[in-house]
Amino acid sequence: MSFYPKYNLDDLTPHLGRLCAPNFHNTASECRQIFSVPVAAVGLREGRHVRLFYSGEASQKLLIDDALCALPLCVPGEQILVSDLNEVDEALLPPLALALGMRSYAGVPIFAARQLVGSLSLADRKPRIFSHFEIQNLQIMAAKMGALMEQYL
Q1: Which sign does the torsion angle of CA 39, 44, 50, 54 carry?
Q2: 3-state percent breakdown (helix, strand, coil) of the chain, nearest 5
Q3: Partners of 109 in beta bridges
Q4: Higher pLDDT, 98 or 137
């Protein structure tokens, strides 16, 4: 059994984000290709915000309440699958998801040192049911992101 000291990862995630950004961007690019989705992102929690790393060099910081990719952070440790966002009460959806015309979503949590630090998310502009195999692959990729961050702790 391994022992991890209790870090305040909210204080460390901006630093981890800078160190791991190239890997996060590569993972987002891979996910876009593998899962054939227009949007894939690695999200890191930074207090009440989430920093999203997309393919290429793009990233942005949003309030957790405004980011679809933050859903696995709001329901700690749970994967979130929504096959059609139009079937969800609009008041419950982050405004950015609606503005971008997203219709389906899959997100899994990322853990580092046994703490929830982020999410790996996919979004599509059409209704879609992500398969069990796709979710397993997404979970494996999220575990790799967590292991990468643990190297810097």
Answers
A1: negative
A2: 45, 25, 30
A3: 119
A4: 137
**Amino acid (one-letter) located at 120:** L
Which of 139, 58, 65 has its CA nearest to residue 106?
Answer: 139
Quick one: average pLDDT of 64-68? 77
Strand order in the sheet with 104-112: 59-63, 49-53, 39-46, 115-124, 104-112, 80-82
Nearest to 130 by CA among 40, 70, 53: 40
Give one DSSP letter per residue of 44-64, joined into a string: EEETTEEEEE-STT-EEEEEG
115-153 residue pLDDT tens:
888 999 999 999 999 999 999 999 999 999 999 998 887
Tell me which amino acid residue 22 is: P
pTM of this prediction?
A: 0.86
Q: Is 110 helix (H, G, I), strand (E, B) or coil?
A: strand
- Distance (Å, rounded) from C-alpha 47 to C-alpha 152? 19
Residue found under tokens 């994967």: 79
How many C-beta neighbours within 10 Å does residue 149 have? 26
Nearest to 59 by CA among 112, 10, 94, 23: 23
Give residue 13's identity as a one-letter amino acid code: T
Helix (H, G, I), strand (E, B) or coil at 21: helix
